[in-house]
Design a protein that fits this description.
This protein is α+β, with helices and mostly antiparallel strands. The protein folds into 2 domains: about 140 residues, Regulatory protein AraC (Jelly Rolls), CATH 2.60.120; about 100 residues, Homeodomain-like (Arc Repressor Mutant, subunit A, Orthogonal Bundle). A 5-stranded antiparallel β-sheet has the order 1-8-3-6-9. It has a 4-stranded antiparallel β-sheet with strand order 2-7-4-5, with no helix packed on it. Helix 2 runs antiparallel to helix 3. The radius of gyration is 20 Å and the shape is globular. The N and C termini lie far apart (about 50 Å). The mean pLDDT is about 80.
Length: about 260
């Protein structure tokens, strides 16, 4: 018989979840270092987090990780509402708490259901702590590999290509041009980009466009045709197809959920 044990270092000692709602947006800052590691999950509105070495833009469906001790400022904007979850926690082992991920984000709109379940089942009065714990570890399981994959030096060998795509995502971009920016052959560039970023150059370009489209969809002020023009999609049908690929929902479903919230 082979005995296997669960790593106790990942047992929770603290866990708090808050649901923030605002219709005006605001600026906040932290000058002494964040006391616990924290996940922030954006439902509506936008945010910009600024640290000494990086700036992180947040849109609906983005999940940001803030390490313990992180010093940063944040600026939030309601479009027309600002809604986000903050999940503060600490493990029983200080080493597990301190050695998680760097200050970074991933796009994970599929986690909305899990955050809702965690929030709704938490609390000493009428809450179901087992369901809450299950939801927390589900979030951790889903995000662990993705955050570790995202921990890539921003200015690595393909950094110039990543920055170019983000700045010119509404334009035509060719692999030969990106490879030239990085001073390498097309085949080497393509394989390295896919391995490093987790997407092909075309998929990464579409991901950036979808994030911008999602923000405009949530605002609810523009037609799908207008959003196509702004974000560089050739047609509403193509936007719907690409949008569903990355978010798991249609633009209509996103707008409807934003109205419900």
């Amino acid at each position: 018989m082979i005995h296997k044990y669960i790593d106790k270092s990942l047992f929770l000692s603290k866990c708090y979840i808050f649901r923030h709602y605002d219709r005006t947006g605001y600026t906040s800052g932290n000058t002494i270092g964040f006391p616990n590691p924290c996940f922030g999950f954006i439902l509506a509105g936008t945010g910009v987090f600024t640290a000494s070495d990086r700036t992180i833009e947040l849109f609906p469906g983005d999940l940001v990780f803030i390490p313990k001790g992180q010093i940063y400022t944040s600026v939030w904007k309601a479009t027309p509402e600002l809604i986000f979850y903050s999940l503060n926690f600490e493990f029983a082992s200080e080493s597990a708490t301190s050695h998680m991920y760097e200050f970074s984000k991933i796009h994970a709109p599929e986690l909305k259901i899990t955050f809702d379940r965690l929030y709704n089942s938490s609390g000493s009065d009428g809450g179901d702590n087992l369901v809450a714990l299950s939801a927390f570890y589900e979030i951790l399981s889903v995000t662990d590999k993705r955050f570790r994959k995202a921990e890539i030096p921003r200015y690595s060998e393909i950094g110039a290509a990543v920055e170019y795509i983000e700045a010119h995502c509404t334009e035509e971009i060719s692999v030969p041009h990106l490879a030239k920016l990085c001073c390498m052959s097309q085949s080497k560039f393509y394989n390295l980009f896919r391995k490093t970023v987790g997407y092909t150059p075309t998929d990464y370009k579409n991901l950036i466009k979808v994030r911008r489209a999602e923000e405009l969809i949530v605002r609810g002020k523009l037609t799908l045709e207008e959003i196509c023009d702004i974000c560089g999609f050739s047609s509403p049908s193509y936007l719907r197809r690409v949008y569903r690929k990355f978010t798991g929902r249609t633009p209509k479903e996103t707008r409807r959920s934003a109205d419900i919230i």
